[in-house]
Amino acid sequence: MNVTYSPGLEGVIAGETAISTVGKEGMGLNYRGYSIYDLAEHAGFEEVAHLLIHGRLPNRDELDAFRTRLITMRVLPEGLRHVLEQLPPTAHPMDVLRTGCSALGAMEPESAGHNQYGVAERLVASFPAMLLYWHHFHKTGERIATKSPEKGLAGHFLALLHGKTPDDLARQLVNASLILYAEHEFNASTFSARVTASTLSDFYSAVTSAIGTLRGPLHGGANEEAMKLITRFKSPEEAENGIYEMLERKEKIMGFGHRVYKKADPRSAVIKEWSRRISEASGNMLLYQVSERIENILQKEKGLYPNLDFYSASAYHLCGIPTAMFTPVFVFARICGWSAHIIEQRAANRLYRPIANYIGPEPMPYVAIEERT
Ligand code: COA
Prior knowledge:
Number of strands: 3
Helix content: 55-70%
Structural class: mainly alpha
CATH topology of the largest domain: Citrate Synthase, domain 1
Shape: globular
Strand content: under 5%
Largest sheet: 3 strands, antiparallel
CATH superfamily of the largest domain: Citrate Synthase, domain 1
CATH architecture of the largest domain: Orthogonal Bundle
Number of helices: 16
Bound molecules: coenzyme A
Distance between the termini: 43 Å
Order of helices and strands: EEEHHHHHHHHHHHHHHHH
């Protein structure tokens, strides 16, 4: 066996996939052959969810049926509502989703009558409900019905969050953002889902692993950290000084850099344009201007480019989404990619089990407890 060591598995091909192309030269990012630029401009999130989970873009009848199924699955079982009420108001929203996913797995386990496609759809439909049921219960004591007249998930999430019909621009922005976040090959959380699936564990366990992995600031948590960064500055000039100081201290700037994309993240230009549009529409350009100044400095000084998380921060903020919900919105989208990968892993399974270089002590004799110092 040819054994090489690659910390963080950098550059290692760990499997085959037909779901997306990340960093393949000249191809940007495609989901099952379709460019994310086309999808983000023309498609509804549900079309992309169908493409990823069921393997192809739906025709009109399939899309209508898919949407109808998702709408009926927005209501949470009573047991899960009780669980969500027990979680403290101080819990991080990612902990709420991780726990909600795990609890639902105990209440509606995978079975012959609730197969992997049914579980995937149930999770797509119900993650916004889990988060916002918990949110409103702890904020006002209200036990919301988690229903809305919104057909699409983007509008449904905003309607549940704000308790009113969302405006068109915010709905379109969140729709495009969900599409951009929906899938990204063997990223850390997807890999984590595939590792769990490779032990032949259940679907919910694989997704719970993925949520825990996404939570970290080097992965999905970066959009939340980017928001904390850009709101520290009251002007682009202040941002410039602050970023130079951070670079001097060798601090990481969240929302920049990528393991695979070294020249540019193809998703960034799309979300940046949405951030500009909503900033102009709201008459509040500060966060956008601060973000752009930071982008220019990082490009000039470090050759680093923003990833999808960076301009998502200002864009989400201007849609009225609380910062702690930024990474959960990523979950609402990425559940499609995770599901597609779990299904793909199961179809051609091989247990993931790498090996390690041992760097511990040499073998030594056991010492009786009385003789230990
Ligand atoms: N801010 C400042 N410097 C950064 C940086 C950032 N966000 N990202 C990378 N770098 C620098 C590193 O310090 C390193 O510099 P050095 O060679 O002088 O030590 C160099 O760029 C290579 O970075 P490295 O951390 O080895 O790359 P990686 O492939 O391991 O990391 C990330 C990829 C995503 C983990 C990394 O870019 C990062 O931590 N980004 C911030 C978190 C983030 O936005 N995550 C979301 C990813 S979609």
